[in-house]
């Protein structure tokens, strides 16, 4: 129920709400286009080698593929790795030498810890193999990066630097020619330049024109960014009257939020009260 208002105020409110919903829709569509833009967005899926985690990762990969979102790597964290996982501790000769070197009680503790690591490694290798054989991973030729379980927390610059090296192929650490983590088409650096600074649907303002100064300050909407880097925009020259222009990106700037804030304040001051 509307109290203290009239038809004109109600109609103005309806138009503003409708306009705001359209703006939200444009924003959502813009984010969707950005996520599907392989030059801007690439997902890296991080998981651990356990049943629930790899199943959730498989579902995520399936959804990303369905929505045409690029994925480059799958990182598997906290893996129990090392030669000790294959040490034959059940061998009587090794057990005897261990008891002689450490004592029976200490060797029993070490043997129990090694058995635990071996069991954990066996479970993780099972799920790691299952992950690598997922169609979402194998068919897409995704690179699976295996990271070990560390005896320390990854905090501080030195630990972060050491951990970052584990994300790189061996060639980067040894100084030789690195092996690519995944076969991908190389992307020219120029594709990341200013030609991608505006997206379809962006609300902009014309500025800095010399020969056509009467367009400066006019609101516009980006229609398309052309291959030569220019931007096709629809400029509002009069209320509900538009003109198509092809402008340099230097002559456009994203619309400020000041006008939107003023509209919100005006709406709050003039809106009828709802009870």
UniProtKB/TrEMBL annotation:
Q: State the superkingdom.
A: Eukaryota
One GO biological process this protein is involved in is:
tail-anchored membrane protein insertion into ER membrane
Q: Where is this region: Disordered?
A: 253-275
Biased-composition ranges, Acidic residues, are: 256-266
Q: Pfam families under this entry? A: ArsA_ATPase
Similarity comment: Belongs to the arsA ATPase family.
Q: Provide the protein name.
A: ArsA/GET3 Anion-transporting ATPase-like domain-containing protein
Organism of origin is: Perkinsus olseni
